[in-house]
Amino acid sequence: MDYISAPEAAENWGISERRVQKLCKENRIPGVVRFSRIWLIPKDAKKPEDGRMKAKNKQEDNHGI
Fold first, then answer.
1. Number of domain units in the chain
2. What's the pLDDT tens digit per position in 11-29?
3. What 3-state class would DSSP assign to 39?
């Protein structure tokens, strides 16, 4: 299996390297491996969905109570 580094994944996905590291630490990227201080991400891994709710959706959810 081919791997890429966190900086390469960050560039491919258009997010910061720090964000990629956090996603790795939270096990949100399947197949990720930690080698010493380096995160190795499968080359074919997809960017995880953003788990944050948008403010509009929160307001809609509160009105349904």
1. 1
2. 999 999 999 999 999 999 9
3. strand
Q: How far are the Cα atoms of 1, 3, 22, 23 from residue 51, in angstroms, in the given order? A: 28, 25, 13, 11
Contacts of residue 45, defined as CB under 8 A and 6 or more positions apart, other chains included, come to: 9, 29, 30, 31, 32
| Structure-token pair, residue 49 | 């969905």
- What domain range includes position 27? 3-63
Q: Which one-letter DSSP state was computed for residue 64? A: T
Hey, what amino acid is at 32?
A: V
Q: Model-level pTM greater than 0.85?
A: no
C-alpha–C-alpha distance, residues 23 and 32, integer Å? 10
Which pair of tokens denotes residue 15? 């997010």
